[in-house]
Write a structure and sequence with these properties.
Blueprint lengths: L1 H49 L5 H16 L8 H5 L4 E10 L2 E8 L2 E7 L29 H16 L26 H11 L2 H9 L9 E5 L2 E5 L2 E2 L10 H6 L8 H21 L5 E3 L7 E3 L5 E3 L5 E3 H8 L10 E2 L2 E2 L2 E2 L4 E2 L7 H13 L2 H4 L6 H15 L6 H20 L20
Length: 441
């Protein structure tokens, strides 16, 4: 009687042991799988977040590599000697790394500047194919690149980068200072390679093309290899209720001549002038597709300056970007530049529906002139009228009334300046807008 019972118990224990073993094995497998996912997740986060972590040590290493290549004759530029030999370029701090882009604060002969490059290493840029030939560029053969050749190829690269058509007029702005004007001299491989690396950076090309034509973009002051120096300006901040740190301008070594009270309407007027300038004064309208306080700065004369133009496009390239496949209107939104979906063709319209002015009213002016920020002044008749005009500007859908709204904002802001300065004519008048025709592509 007991034998069958003991046999049954033994079988039960064996079965239970097998199940326990299976569960243990399953738990081990699950634990290993979770650990593997966790560790790979950490690696992914590290590569995508911390690999671009901005540090002073890494920034100094990057600049040291630039100087090493300068001494080896690989790259050159008008900034190199001061950076790598005389020490007149003094590194200050790392500003940010983003998707390979390196941005650092420095001082050049006592002047604060920002050093920028789209990629970390000079070798990461595509080489000028003409330099692959033994006699190309700096050799002594018959196939040397003449200064006219340099101008021609550089102009084609600029037009291609900015999305502009190539016409008969191949006007080239001052890309290499006075050196491109020295028609007698041939260019070294280092000079051509450095110029070509700079031309592959859309922001550099954009700023170089426009800096002699407008005061509303940051000025490029020099370059060394693939790094270029831009003037350092007080940028805006989304978290700052005043957007721009206006107090910094009044406390700086060479303070602004305007009072803090009149600064806000004057800066707003400069925004309006910039918008009109970008829309009307070039051969193609210029679209800003990433409008936020951080992408603008102000000089001491309160001129608004576009300092991050990675998302700025002339009309031909804007149309090319917008004209994509779609199923609804939301598919046609390219950051702050939007168009409408033609559902019969499932194609986005090539024409932008909103405007630079509309987005600036929505993202800059509306919070800037809000009752919360204005406090007790919000109930004043002029402020109420300005708030209504800003709201109408941010919500406008009819482009025919755009000019009317702009003129209304101009009038109200000028009246605010007059009120704040206590002068019937509003103190200094804004400079008359100049029409530039040099950018005639």
């Amino acid at each position: 009687m007991w034998r069958p019972l003991r046999g049954a118990l033994g079988s039960a224990r064996r079965c239970l042991g097998v199940k326990v073993c299976r569960r243990s094995a399953l738990l081990v497998v699950l634990l290993w799988l979770v650990s593997w996912i966790f560790l790979n997740g950490l690696v992914f986060v590290h590569r995508n977040m911390f690999s671009d972590f901005c540090t002073d040590d890494k920034s100094k290493e990057i600049l040291q590599r630039v100087c090493d290549e300068y001494h080896q004759g690989v790259l050159t530029g008008d900034l190199c000697d001061d950076l790598c030999v005389s020490g007149q370029v003094e590194y200050k701090r790392c500003l940010y790394y983003e998707n390979g882009k390196k941005v650092m604060a420095a001082s050049w002969r006592g002047l604060p500047v920002v050093l920028k490059s789209k990629l970390e290493n000079f070798s990461s840029y595509e080489a000028l194919s003409l330099l692959d030939y033994p006699d190309g560029g700096a050799g002594g053969g018959e196939d040397e690149l003449s200064p006219l050749d340099v101008v021609f190829y550089a102009t084609l690269e600029i037009k291609n980068s900015l999305g502009l058509e190539t016409g008969n007029n191949l006007t080239l702005p001052r890309l290499w200072g006075q050196r491109l004007k020295e028609s007698e001299r041939m260019y070294s491989r280092a000079e051509l390679a450095s110029l070509w690396a700079l031309l592959q950076q859309e922001e550099y090309t954009f700023l170089r093309v426009l800096q002699d034509l407008t005061n509303h973009v940051a000025k490029i002051l020099g370059s060394c290899g693939h790094f270029y120096a831009v003037e350092y300006l007080a940028a805006g901040h989304a978290w700052d209720q005043h957007i721009f740190s206006l107090d910094e301008l009044t406390l700086s070594p060479s303070p602004s001549t305007f009072s803090v009270k009149e600064m806000v309407p004057r800066v707003a007027l400069s925004f309006l002038e910039m918008v009109e300038h970008f829309e009307n004064d070039f051969s193609h309208r210029l679209h800003l597709c990433d409008i936020k306080p951080e992408n603008f700065a102000i000089r001491k004369d309160l001129t608004v300056v576009a300092i991050d133009v990675d998302m700025a496009f002339f009309e031909p390239k804007m149309r090319e970007i917008l004209e994509q496949n779609c199923t609804n209107d939301s598919d046609c939104n390219f950051f702050d530049c939007i168009s409408k979906c033609d559902k019969t063709k499932n194609r986005c319209g090539s024409k932008r529906r909103n405007s630079n002015l509309q987005v600036i009213c929505e993202k800059i002016f509306r919070p800037w002139f809000s009752p919360t920020l204005l406090g007790a002044k919000a109930g004043l008749p002029l402020q109420v009228e300005l708030q209504r005009a800003v709201q109408e500007c941010a919500e406008m859908e009819d482009s025919e009334h755009r000019q009317d709204i702009r003129q209304q904002l101009y009038a109200l802001l000028r009246e605010l300046v007059q009120e704040d300065t206590g002068h019937p004519r509003g103190g200094q008048e804004h400079k008359r807008r100049r029409v530039h025709t040099a950018l005639n592509f």
